[in-house]
Amino acid sequence: MFSCNFSDQPPQRLPSLPSQLQLPLTVNSRETRSRAKTRARVKRAKVAMVDEQSLAQVFFLNNDQQWEILGKGHVSTIYVERLQGMCLLVRSEPNGLQILESKIKPDTPYERRQGTLIVWSEAENHGMAISFPDAARCYEIWKDICQVQGKDPSTDITHDALVESENETLDDVAETYEVLELPDCELGNLHQIAHLIASALTSSLHKERLVLLLGNEDFIKKLLQLFHTCEDLEDTESLHDLHDIVKGMLLLNKASLLEILFSDKYIMDVVGCLEYDPALAQPKRHREFLTQKVKFKEVIPIIDHELLQKIHQTYRVQYIHDILSPIPSIFEENFLSALTTFILLNKGAIVNMLQEDDKFLSTVFAQLRDKTTDDDTWRELLFFFKEFCAFSQTLHSENRDALFKTLRELGILPALKMLMSMNDLQIRSAATDIFTYLVEYSPSMIREFIIEDQHSEDSILFINLVIQQIFCDTDPELGSAFHLMGILRYLLDPNNMTTSSHCEKSEFLQFFFKHCMHNFLAPLLSTTSEYIRDKDNIVGSDENNKNCLNNYHTAQLLALILDLLSFCVQHHAYYMKKYILDKDLLRKVLILLNSKHTFLNLCALRFMRRMIGLTDELLNRYIIEGNFFEPVVNALLKNGTRYNMLNSAIVELFDYIRMENIKSLVAHIVEKFYATLKSIEYVQTFKGLKVKYEQEKERQNQVGKNLCYVLYSKIFCRGSSVIEEEEEMSINENVKEEAVKPPPESDFEDYFETEKAKENEDKVDTPSQTSFGDFKFTSSHSADAADGASNPNCRSVISLVDYSDDEEEEEDETPPSKRPHLSP
Q1: Of the chain's two ends, which shows fewer C-beta atoms within 10 Å, N or C?
Q2: CA–CA separation, 423 vs 728, rounded Å?
Q3: Rounded Cα distance, 322 and 264, in Å
């Protein structure tokens, strides 16, 4: 497919075909050496192309809104009985096949452009165009169209303007197919070919056409044969042209061209052409480097000849890629995407071919596990396997799964454990890189192996060996330690932890905090304990001491440790909370605020900030009881009025507590440090803490008052109801006594016995208890209940609350007895 750019400017008139054929005669002054021969060739070409000169080109707009050429032929207008109208008819030469048959409809808009193009639309999104070799022939056809539609031939548009998507600069399309005629591959035409390729790189349409012209192996073969001729003749100018031609062909970014250029027959000649860069005073010796200085090492002999060729080709193509970098600014950023893809596909093919060879990988691992293997062989095996793992990143997921399953079965992890414990720095570094590839691919597989490793006979666990490598890094910038710390973080990252029957998240975390965390914290504990032990003779004064807080190397290592601890606090709060409380970890971390290195101070503050961010009241009580805000406040005061990251971090810590209104911490800070912090007025954080504190204090007082009122109201109301019940019972008893007439004296004893029996029955049923909170109330329905305190079995509200004034009032004021009204 070919694409065209739309343009608001009117298209330029297409040059006629004869002038294009004469272009090679005027471009290059070097053609004077073979002028007679070239003139004869052009004359022959004119005779052969005389018929082509009269042919028109037919284009159509495809579904991608790009113009494609339909063919070339003679154009005529003729009445077609089948279509019942005049039609545009185009037939190819010399076979006379019909290319186009289009009925001229009265309402179809036609447009003539620059005298040589006629454009119209057959249907929606189906544009058509004819490019004529000259204006005269175009005008003849245009008159026929205007006659059918009843329009004046002097106009260039028969109806309204065409749709914008069809208003394409078709003159560029036609020009591409006429101008981009590749000259013969001869010595005298090299400069013209180089110029043609350079100009085509700026247009996607020209690039597509050029790829079709160059994608001929015969042309590339002749071109590279000319390279040897130019080298023999020491024709520097032609060699410079060849450099531009080959580089331009690579920058066309087409896989079909790369397949030919990078074949075994031509790749070294391509490298040779790239040696003669016109921008360099002297040519580079790329071929000499690839053939003489580069040595291909076979740690394990490779028998497969195809595999060997693929390995050599990949290395050389990668070398060519490096030659073409950096990317020139006039090209897109992905202008070498086809070259990069070619390399990646080759790497994937190499890995697959090695994986299919069972003996090869088995032999490699047998030598890796063999403790009698010398260090040089180990080193070469690891370098090979490191590159093998790098190549495997290009595989599809299914193939990569199968590969890493095979590697695990062959014992890659036990071999790495053995190699990472060796003293050779290069061996340890290569083993670490391979371990990184495995962790990035399948962290769950590594976690499973780490847990299983505790049952091995080795005295040191694999994960502890990795931690040990972090602390043994001698690089001043701790490059390797930083890399390994990233691996630990990846293993502890809950986002890539999947629950399975073999390795669950909780199981790995329990294992890590039990068997590894103390080793991980060893430098931190050692440094802080040294500081505490030598507090009077400050360790920080001796910066050469490895346990010194001001030692840059130590500070960097502690910063890495604190970063991972902060990560664990955020993502594994349960385990870290227990560890912090058991080991009193925050106390040791805050000692690092005494270091002169601000980045270490910030790491310590970040750790405390993560703890407070959990909003766990148990941790808050731990912070309060340990008085851990004191070193933070001291660091703020020591920093003074300087506005820096340390100041911002401390203020943010207090501001977070204020905004979240963590009541226990707010109260602790205000009560203990507000007198010191109230002078800081450039932020309102500390005044805000004071306001929060006062609001909470007032709220608590109000709650206390409300609680007392509620309790008093409930107790008083309950007691009043009990008294009223007792009074009512007493009145009822009095009414009964007065309502009954006294019996005769003779019957007095019988009457007394009867009443006594009734009283006994009442006493059996009357005692009942009512509970309210922790208090119990007892009431009686007997006549004696009216006396209140006189009855020892009766408890009233007055005996529950000891109000002396109330007792006096009750003694002085006896409720008046109510006289019952009896019916006659």
Answers
A1: C
A2: 100
A3: 19
* Whether the Cβ atoms of residue 226 and residue 185 lie closer than 8 Å to each other: yes
Give the span between the Cα atoms of 256 and 748, in whole angstroms: 137
Note whether 16 and 134 are within 8 A (CB): yes
| Sequential DSSP letters for 263-300 | STTTHHHHHHHTT--TTSSS---HHHIIIII-----SS
Indicate the residue type of 648: S
29-52: pLDDT as tens digits: 343 344 434 443 434 444 334 355
Helical pair 217-233 and 236-251, crossing angle rounded to 10 deg = 150
Count of CA atoms in the C-beta half-sphere (13 A) of 697: 11
CA–CA distance, 250 with 322 (Å, rounded to integer): 13
Q: Exposure of 628 by Cβ count < 10 A (0-12 exposed, 13-18 middle, 19+ buried)?
A: middle
| d(C-alpha 797, C-alpha 301), whole Å | 104
Residue for token pair 């897109």: 332
Decide if 531 contacts 591 (C-beta within 8 A): yes
What pLDDT is attached to residue 731?
64
Please provide residue 272's backbone torsions phi and psi, each rounded to the nearest 5 degrees. Answer: -65, -40
| Whole-angstrom distance, CA of residue 195 vs CA of residue 181 | 13
Please give the single-letter amino acid code of residue 787. D
Please list the alpha-helical segments (H only) found in 493-597: 505-515, 517-520, 522-533, 552-571, 573-583, 585-590
Three-class secondary structure of residue 77 per DSSP: strand
Residue 797 and residue 777 in contact, taking contact as beta carbons nearer than 8 Å: yes
> How many Å apart are CA 587 and CA 78, to the nearest integer?
100
DSSP letter, residue 746: G
Strand, coil or helix: what is 340? helix
Which residues touch 410 (CB under 8 Å, ≥6 apart)?
A: 361, 362, 365
- Asked whether 35 and 101 are in contact (CB, 8 A), the reply is no
Average pLDDT over residues 743-765: 47
Q: How far apart are CA 116 and CA 11, in angstroms?
A: 11
* Count of other CB atoms within 10 angstroms of residue 516: 17
C-alpha angle with apex 539: 536 to 543, nearest 5 degrees?
Answer: 150
Residues 6+ apart with CB under 8 A from 762: 781, 782
The sign of the dihedral angle between the CA atoms of 728, 730, 734, 737 is positive
Q: pLDDT (tens digit, 9 = 90+) per residue, 139-184?
A: 889 888 888 888 888 888 887 544 444 444 454 554 545 456 778 8
The overall pTM is greater than 0.85? no
pLDDT, one tens digit per residue, over 561-619 is 999 999 999 999 999 999 999 999 999 999 999 999 999 999 999 999 999 999 999 99
Quick check: 334 pLDDT over 80?
no
- Asked if 274 and 286 count as a contact pair (C-beta separation under 8 A), the reply is yes
DSSP letters for 37-101: HHHHHHHHHHHHTTTGGG-EEEEEE-TTS-EEEEEEEEEEEEEETTTTEEEEEEE-TTT--EEEE
pLDDT exceeds cutoff 50 at 538 = no
The rounded distance, in Å, linking the Cα atoms of 219 and 198 is 18
